Amino acid sequence: MRFLRLLSTLLLAAASARAAAIEEITIADLHAAYRDGRTTVRQVVEAHLVRIEAYDQQGPTINSIITVNPAILAEADKLDAARAKLPTGQIPQGALWGIPVVVKDNLDATSMPMTNGFQGWKNYVPPTDAPVVAKIKSAGGLIIAKASLSEFARGGGDNINSVLPGFARNPYHTAYATGGSSGGTGASLAASFAVVGIGTDTGGSVRMPAAHNALAGLRPTVGLVSRTGVVPLDAHRDTAGPMARNVADMAILLDVISGADPADIATTKPPHRIPAPSPFPSGFASSLRKDALKGVRLGVLRQAFKPTVTDKRILANFEKTIAELKAAGAEIVDPFTVPEMDTIPRPPQTPSSFQSDMALWYAAHPGVPYGTVKELADSKLLHPLHQASTEAAVTALPADKDPATITGRNNEQLLREAFTREMDAAKIDALIFPTWAQLPARNGDRNTQITDDPKPAPDAGPTALSSSLTFVGSMLQWPAISLPSGYAGEGLPLGLQIVGRAWSDGKIVSYAYAYEQATHYRRPPASVPPLSPKF
């Protein structure tokens, strides 16, 4: 009898050890719970829907979701029915099987509007899935919702410049911005409205909200992930990218969404002019190693975050980050310098690029309202911040004839050559620097200069909205990842950025994993506390 009581106690303890809450849950934990029969896909989806209901439009009002998938519970039931046909302890194949995924609302997904944050498209439902969305579904993932974004993905420091969804709030402190333009995806993942998510990154729109929301977010090498079915901003730089609360889940999602796409010229003829290796890169999740930083040479690109434009708290935190990277086995080259970075003008995103890229997108979306850039501008439905730039695109020269665009692309190539040359000479494996030079902006604060010597525009001093350090990866079209590296101010997250050469995505993801495992900075935000019981 005593043995039976002891056995019962041990079994209860083992079950308790396996128990998991929906908040902060990982893909591995969910799959284990499915295999053990502790939960169903419907229960998992319902738990996420309860959190969205409680916190997105009520309570802290995170406002990160534009559309909840109306068929999500029926889709969950189909997965549960498929699992019921398998032997106990098994689940259907699929790296994302039964995993709720949130997708930025500039990707096509059937049965839901694709708004791009624009009120004129609030009723537009695309007829097909973007390849990224189709791959998620094929891997068993469930698109639980479409996330808020800065209108037409134009936004960095905030996520307020959109008429349709309004601004999203940072779950770590709702007075502050989420970062843009993928701020809806960032805030919803931080708040555990889904397990993983998709953002897009042109000038930093995956990495900015990743930094502000204590997430891992990757801007892949342009060409690694299809952009078909994604509304363009500048197709030379645009890419979709995975976001998650931990690097392992982010890598699983990257494995699912990456792959060549004949309809996307960047996967066969990338703008950075370096073709994809053969076989095409894959196996990102299986290559993660806790010791991946040992012997890796990391160059500190201090040119990107000079003290005159960087918050002292971020500078101090980054010195701590360097020490942590050293402790994890990395060799630090500090400073690492690329002289041309200070002499070659930073390549711009131009109205001509937007005009030319949107013309191609419109041709593939014949049913969309306001079906030309001119109709878009003439509608006057845009956010006032974007009206002028859209009007400029109407009269802009085609991208291949516009001097500013041509010069910018030539300068991008010169910078790629310069970075490659200096990294090769110093035997640098990757570059490191903060993701952001200032703490997140307060919502609605667009122009406050953070300086003792304010200057008039266009030479204004640094502001929280203009402090992104993501331009390096974007202008090179190289892979760049942001991951949590600490907190400052009123508990606001800070990000470490790692940038590698073209197609070195697997390496920098593994470096990020090693750093994450050595530091474990991710913590859930207090504004959206747990609701669901453990299962």
TrEMBL record:
Amidase domain span: 44-508
Keywords on record: Signal
Which Gene3D superfamilies has this protein been placed in? Amidase signature (AS) domain (3.90.1300.10)
- Cite the residue spans of the region called Disordered: 442-464
Q: Tell whether Signal is among the UniProt keywords.
A: yes
**Keyword Nucleotide-binding annotated:** no
The record's InterPro entries line, in alphabetical order, gives: Amidase_CS (IPR020556), Amidase_dom (IPR023631), AS_sf (IPR036928)
Q: Which residues form the signal peptide?
A: 1-19
Any idea what this protein is called? Amidase
